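Why do we care about 3D structure at all? Because function follows from shape, and shape follows, mostly, from sequence. That is the central idea of this module. The next example makes it concrete: a single protein chain, its amino acid sequence, and then its structure expressed as tokens.
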Amino acid sequence: MSMSTGNGWVQLRQQTRSLEAQVFTSNQYPIIQKPANKQQTDTLFHTYSRFASASNIPSKPTEEETRTETQIQELLEKRENLISQLTRLLDSEALLTASALKQNNLTRHRETLLEHRHTLTRLRSSITEARQRANLLSNVRSDIDAYRSSNPETAEADYMLDERARIDRSHGVADSVLSQAYAVNEQFGVQREMLGNVHRRIVGAAGKVPGINGLIGRIGAKKRRDGIILGGFIAFCMLMFLYFT
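And the structure:
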């Protein structure tokens, strides 16, 4: 009797783990080989969660959304039935009841089932909120379009207001550019004044040192003399070139 009960426990637990692997992540139970139709990267929960994050969620549940939710619900119900059978099996056999490992396994299956039920409830609420929000926005847009269609004067006034807002934004951008240009020009003036002060300080310091003015004068005279000599040489070369040509 205990042998058949042990075999029943193993089979029921394998079925439970297989169902958990189908609805939960694909890498939680790597030793369980899933059916061929479950060898997919996305899980049922991941597929179901994409409906809540869709950019254009439909006003009513699609066929795929309903099918995915039904599959999850059916898997959870099957797991609950298997867990009930495991519980009755443990309660019926004193030897199995004394096994702490099997008690821990059963507790873990219950906790996992409860967690998945909470996940399904949370995802269902998120999808409902997203759909209600999308429907509300769609109704508001429809009311606005209907109001504009029935009141062309108001629609024209709204268009003029929008155009004025765009012009005001353009003026704001132009004012910002002009302000930056004025700030740059002001900075140039400050730097020019600073350079003038530095030049005056250098000239003033040079005037206080004996012999500096004379040295600067001789340097200037030498530059003028070299310029005159160079200019005369260039003029002589030009004359000779014109004479021989």
